[in-house]
Amino acid sequence: MVSRVRPDHLGITAWAARRTRTTREYFAAGGSISALQNGFALAGDYMSAASFLGIAGLVATSGFDGLIYSVGWLVGWPVITFLIAEPLRNLGKYTFADVVAYRLRQRPVRIAAAISTLTVVTFYLIAQMVGAGNLIRLMFGLSYEAALLIVGSVMLAYVLFGGMIATTWVQIIKAVLLLLGATLLAVLVLREFGMNPLALFAAARDQYGTGVLAPGKLVANPLEAVSLGIALMFGCAGLPHILMRFYTVPDARTARRSVAYATSLIGFFYLVTFILGFGASVLVGRKAIIAVDPGGNMAAPLLAEVLGGTGFLGFISAVAFATILAVVAGLTLSGAAALAHDLWGHVVRKGKVREREQMIVARLATIGLAVLAILLGLVFRGQNVAFMVGLAFSIAASANFPALLLSMMWKRLTTRGAVASMITGTVSSLVLITLSPTVWKDLLHNAEAIVPLKNPGVITVPLSFLVAIVVSLVKPEPEAQAGFDAAQRRMHLGPE
């Protein structure tokens, strides 16, 4: 089934490569994408391995609590709609660092933003590669290592040559296929229960007890639930590969409309994954799901095999695989933009960089990120992909969102405040994640975790805001305040 996906990708890549000659075309598709197209591309970028494989797996193995991820990811979109989309499109060029650095000193802000961007991209890449490795192993019986090489190689081909144009169209096509495939699978599940979701939930209750329909199994600690919710909601507005998509449209109005389309598509999709999770737990069984993958990530493909045989398994797996490729491409592109545009273009070359030179650096960065993705997929084998993306959201919410929001909304934010906020958010998230049960106990095999919280958002997000405010107030920056009014005019009226 994967062989059917590759010509699709490579054909788009060949077409896009002829239209990708400048850095604006490579990073932002020349700003030529329509609202509906960008809405589907945003959905395709967002409906990742975590959404399809991870949430279905969490619901299948944990019951009702798995829904916290889908709800958390969805409620972040109004934040983007009302606070982020329009100012970002009007102020920026390729990366969210363009917005933060607009009225601040370029060099320190872009270094800090690149560090936080690459950290988020790295954690997000882990989840996609783990999902892809398990998927190909299930489909073809190939080794996990060979699966990672296949994903990395195919993704590298169309990002390297097709850039954002190829990535956008791959994401659009995969969003359509994923929505159709997941909807068909959900209908087949409901058909087994007389098209009645309540009958499905009752069957799950009869099989696993009333606890399957109650919260508390996956996230038993209320503080843990709040922490996870904060990370998922605000992390959405700090994801570099999502923010980058707003530069692919011609104006701020189109950016807002594309968010509306994306929110509708993603909301429907998350309702469908809830049905898939419960359907898998009843029709496949938790023991069978965990036997294939300890993280539960293969629940949806296994459900497809039970309901539609090997052919339907192949279709669902191919769609999931293609979706992973599209998301990995978006992540790699945002990481390459941080390296080529922020670090090389503005830090090393101080804004005096030629188009050809920046394109070469971007493509070299793409190759480096592809290699990194493969290596990380090997290290984190066996983790639930939705959970791993939750950690990426926590870093995005802590490192990127506070500085981005304050740069647009607070006149007194200084360069030192923005840099301190991004570094604090990145470092505190990494430290607390390392000391959490996920890494300290599960990966490093220590007896007890030093920090009991699996997701540190409740600590790190307020800390990043606090550090930005305190550092800015301690040493004001008149130049940054002087540029605030001009930034406000451009945010609301667009470039003159």
Features:
single chain; disordered N terminus; Sodium/glucose cotransporter; globular; mainly alpha; 22 helices; 78% helix; 496 residues
CATH superfamily: Sodium/glucose cotransporter
Distance between the termini: 50 Å
| Strand fraction | under 5%
| Tally of strands | 0
Largest sheet: none
Rg to the nearest angstrom?
22 Å
Number of domains: 1
Q: Any guess at the CATH architecture?
A: Up-down Bundle
Structural class: mainly alpha
Order of helices and strands: HHHHHHHHHHHHHHHHHHHHHH
Mean pLDDT: 83
What fraction, in percent, of the residue positions are helical? over 70%
List the uncertain runs.
Answer: 1-6
Shape: globular
* CATH topology title: Sodium/glucose cotransporter
In a nutshell, what does this entry contain?
78% of the residues lie in helices and 0% in strands. The protein has helices at residues 2-17, 23-28, 35-46, 49-62, 67-91, 97-100, 106-140, 144-191, 197-208, 222-235, 240-243, 252-283, 286-292, 299-348, 355-379, 385-399, 401-409, 415-434, 437-443, 457-474, 478-482, 484-493.
